[in-house]
Design a protein that fits this description.
By secondary structure, the protein is α+β, with helices and mostly antiparallel strands. The chain is built from two helices and eight strands, in the order E-E-H-E-E-E-E-E-E-H.
């Protein structure tokens, strides 16, 4: 059920709504390889336009409970996307926070990995509420498809880097 209303913020009316994205893909690699790409090689496949600032020079995920997902712009500059709320090696990664949306927005993103023969089934769930316009909902739905089904898949299966670190390679 979507909660609809308005927040007064410097005179602008912002829609309060919810977002629910569900995506399932299969990647031709082991859960260990996919999990490593999700957690330690995120800058290899995550990048523009799915970053807050185009001058970001990397995106980092600290793969531990309480670890951060954040962009770095320069020395002591960046943006926090979320925090690791739960992690099970090679099985699940849960992040909570704004995930790049305007504050006040709160969300949870869960990646669940399951072996499927020689491949891995990856399930993503992104649920959020806050300042989420219809346009932003569409951007996140399509964005997750591109990040996982195109970029993550290309990196894991073919070692193709399309993320932030591809700019400096």
């Amino acid at each position: 059920m979507a909660v609809k209303g308005a927040i007064e913020n410097t005179g602008d009316m912002d829609v309060v709504d919810s977002l629910n994205v569900h995506l399932e893909i299969t990647i031709a690699a082991s859960p260990q390889k996919v999990f490593e790409a999700l957690t330690t090689d995120i800058a290899a496949w995550w990048g523009s336009p799915f970053i807050k600032r185009r001058d970001a020079n990397t995106i980092v995920l600290e793969p531990k409970v309480g670890g951060r997902l954040y962009e770095v712009y320069g020395e002591n500059e960046g943006a926090l996307w979320g925090m690791v709320s739960s992690i099970r090696n090679d099985e699940e990664l849960c992040l909570t926070g704004s995930m790049g949306m305007p504050e006040p927005t709160y969300g949870a993103v869960t990646f669940t990995l399951a072996p499927q023969g020689d491949s891995t089934q990856v399930k993503l769930t992104h649920s959020a509420f806050g300042r989420i316009s219809a346009e932003r909902k569409g951007c996140y739905t399509e964005g997750w498809k591109d990040l996982l089904d195109v970029r993550l898949r290309a990196f894991v299966e073919q070692d193709v880097r399309t993320g932030i670190d591809a700019r400096s390679a």
